[in-house]
Amino acid sequence: MKDSGASTQQVSSIKVRCNFATLGYIALLKNLLYQIMFKKPFSFDGRIGRTEYCLSYFGYFAILVVLGATFPNTDMANLLQLILLIPLIWFLLAQGAKRCHDRGNFGGFQIIPFYLLWMMFAPGDPGENEYGPSPKQPAEQRV
């Protein structure tokens, strides 16, 4: 009987360790997304890198798909979709402006056709530019 009790304790301690490890990864992901990336998602100030810009676009399109799939095609649903799209478009414009800033351009460049694709793949300006420090710089160096 004691052997089964000991093995139960071992199994439960393994489960606890796995849960703590999972929580550690979730906390790391939360830290990455909320403290390092997406600090001010609706602000037009500052710079963002390619990763945050691409994640912004993928998130935007995922939300569009969900909105399109969940609402029926009625006048009231279309009005609700429009109301929900306004902050999403603001978010996308803000993220695009910050990515333009990382390239050393003002935010209006994002209306140039195919420039959005260029911003996904082209590297930003190294070091600090007129829009702020590089998003690749460690947080301690960004003063």
TrEMBL record:
Keywords: Membrane, Transmembrane, Transmembrane helix. The keyword Nucleus does not apply. The keyword Chaperone does not apply. Pfam families: DUF805. GO terms for cellular component: plasma membrane. The chain crosses the membrane at residues 54-71, 77-94, 106-124. InterPro entries: DUF805. PANTHER family: BLR8105 PROTEIN, INNER MEMBRANE PROTEIN-RELATED-RELATED. This is DUF805 domain-containing protein. It comes from Dyadobacter helix.
